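Action item from last meeting closed. Structure (144 res):
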């Protein structure tokens, strides 16, 4: 097994529906002056192998964000800096898929996620699927 440190204990405190539906960011408002990543998960769809890790943000988590993703400041005391967390997750993926360079990133709000990574000088390329865009295609606003 591959151990990605940084823990996923926060998931035990969170309803599974919320955990599956939201990413970990300390601010959930796209227009907020500061949003940071506080949790990242990866899944290798072909095998079902997955890992998640908590990330140490520079500030406190906003109460609304905690309500959405169930991560609170106490969960992040021993969390890893983003660069370390990301390196460990990519090492995990390298073990699973042999270091492929054609990975596809799936995000619920691709533009928001891309901006968060760009804010950290991280370029994940252009192979993204956006579940928010897909949901809007299936359920246009005002159609329900």
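Sequence:
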């Amino acid at each position: 097994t591959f151990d990605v440190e940084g823990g996923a204990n926060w998931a035990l405190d969170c309803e599974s529906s919320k955990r599956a539906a939201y990413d970990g960011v300390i601010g959930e408002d796209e227009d907020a002056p500061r949003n940071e990543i506080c949790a990242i998960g990866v899944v290798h769809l072909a095998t079902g192998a997955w890992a998640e890790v908590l990330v140490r943000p520079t500030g406190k988590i906003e109460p609304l964000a905690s309500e959405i993703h169930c991560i609170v400041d106490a969960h992040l005391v021993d969390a890893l800096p983003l660069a370390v967390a990301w390196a460990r997750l990519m090492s995990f993926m390298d073990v699973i898929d042999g270091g492929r360079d054609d990975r596809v990133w799936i995000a619920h709000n691709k533009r928001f996620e891309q901006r968060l990574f760009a804010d950290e000088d991280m370029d994940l390329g252009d192979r993204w699927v956006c579940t928010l865009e897909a949901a809007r295609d299936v359920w246009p606003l005002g159609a329900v």
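Note appended to the action item: The first strand starts at residue 24 and ends at 25.
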